[in-house]
Write a structure and sequence with these properties.
With 473 residues, the protein is of the alpha/beta class. The chain is 27% helix and 15% strand.
Amino acid sequence: MKHILMLFTDQQRWDTIGALGNPAMQTPHLDALARESTVFEQCYTPSPVCVPARLSMFAGQYPARTGCSNNNAHTVYQGEGFYSRITKADYQSCAVGKMHHLVDPYGPMGFERRVTQEELSDPRDDYTRFILENHPQVFDYHGMRSEMYYVPQISPLSPEDHPTQWIGDKSVEYIRQCGGEKPMFLVSSFIHPHPPYCPPAPWQKLYREDPPPPLVPSAGDMENLQELVSSRCGCERLMISFQDLLRTKNFYYACVSFVDYQVGRIIQALKDQGMYDDTLVLFSSDHGDMMGDYNALGKRTMMDSSCHIPLLIRRPGHPHEVRRDPCSLVDVAPTLLRYAGAAYREEEFDGLDLFGERRHDAVFSQLGCGSDGVYMVTDGKNKLVYHSVSGRHFLFKGFPDVKNVYAENEPAVKRLKPLLDAYRAEDTRHTGDSKSYEPYTKSHPHYPGRYDHAMRHNEEAAAIPKEYHIDLD
């Protein structure tokens, strides 16, 4: 049988796997998977923010076609996505964890079964119900957001009940109960290492030495790049010192390692069931995290730290390989559909079957739209970015992105600019201007635009004696 396991994380940089060149990382299970996989070194997100990146993967289309280029629920995409097609190809299918498709966050999404963990408190959410039944006194069970959003913190839950381990538990349970009469399609999707960076104790002590320092270009180069680096999450604006940044990076790494532990548990369950040798395993993430590079945290920029993501695909019977041609999350749908034997029309997708005869010359990414959009194209060696607000182009030759060398007579510009112009011309289906997404509250200008969980507002307020005032608004 041709089983499929899709392992997906949120906000995991491309360089956070030991086997891919980061000696500071402790990721033994992802390292082992990488050694058996095709490693795509030049994989880029179609949008450096959660919702549009995941919709593009679901649809196999770039934001210019889906109509979603920011964290909004409005979209022009009318298709059914690729999950249902694999189910219809006679697969027993299940999604565990955060899918973050805002058009139908708790619906089936084409799976036979969903086990939900959609990050915020909601009575429809399976993990929310688990917390209410087992830890009703814990309110910020994904970590405290609001003013602590980018501040490293220890989870209030034990490792056994932590949201990351819960995804591992439910995935293992599903594998063990799968019958042998039909192939399995399982998506295990983790919220971490997305902030808040809150590993459980004692995992937060896994990295106690100074991590690799962030990439900060010279003052002159930084000034030239500032338009591309989102000010929303600048370390100066968030009042994060260099020492706090190193601590944050260590907690972020710990979150990755705790996910790695679950990856090992899930793969071991496949081996215990005699399924591993027949399972395609895909590992990737929706976008990266600046982690101090360019004096910033978070995402929302076309710098490599934010838009360059890991992609590993282990195919049964195929040896380890390293690919350096550019690819994207839009390629996931046609690649898995072809593997599952599910019919599709190639013209429906912007993506390609990554193991077919064709390969991309270049891939695209987009944040925002129209006069407020940022657009990127890369051939895996050069990156061209257009920043609509300033009307400027940026060309980076080689990575990491340090110096803008844009010039009209550059061969890379002559090759990539027509592609980017054509992509921008196709971006006519956007649903609104991204300026409407206000990143800060007026009362707290240094905090990210994140709030406490609304569902348990009254319970949380009632937990404080009446003679004290708590601000949950």
